[in-house]
Amino acid sequence: MQIQHAPPYIVAIDAGHGGPYYFGAAHSFADGSHLIEKDLNLDIALRLEALLKAAGYSTVLTRRGDYTLTAFDPSQYRASQRAELQARVDLVNAAVADILVSIHFNGSDDSSQGGTEVYYNPDRSFGPASYALASSVHDALLAAIRGLGYEPRDRGVRNDAEVGGDPTQPHSFLLGTDEGFRASLMPGIIGEALFVSNEAEVALLMRDEARQAMAAAYKAGIDAYFHWLNGG
Fold first, then answer.
1. Cα(first)–Cα(last) distance of the chain, in Å?
2. Mean pLDDT, rounded, for 68-92
3. In the predicted model, is pLDDT for residue 1 greater than 70?
């Protein structure tokens, strides 16, 4: 099933991670402060929402602050994480969103790793639409980051099976059809604009204009997707 409305389109924005237990990637500075992925994700999500609303879109956010939708059981991390992702998917399905855009930043134990990648699930009935959305956002992110004077490694548009959901299932919970999980009902992507573990990319992410440019890139990719969807 693929949902599509006449305009105004409904864009679901997921700020990845969040709350006291799901931090995502992080960078530690010499003064003891940290740049934490969950905070970056929310920052970009709120900026993107403002841009989309100003352009006439409707939006739904899975979170608007540093919290989760579900309780956390420290003895059942994986089950707690799955329940949280299910609550987010249920929320965007209930909103009858046209697309789902999940905002993340990457991390690696190898600080030389960096660059831009966007994930999608090719194996859903609306896989081609998810690919179109992923490609549009990927290209817009690369252009925006290059416009800031930084040349990121192009890591491509990638199958979300590489993200990993349940180890017995091939795709991410957010975009997949894992057994016993109520699947998302619309084309979707997971964006990973840069690496929080890379020194040069952290320096870029600390700049307000860079974060705004990335939010604008997500919006440009969304615009391009709906233009494509309508035969443009």
1. 23
2. 96
3. no
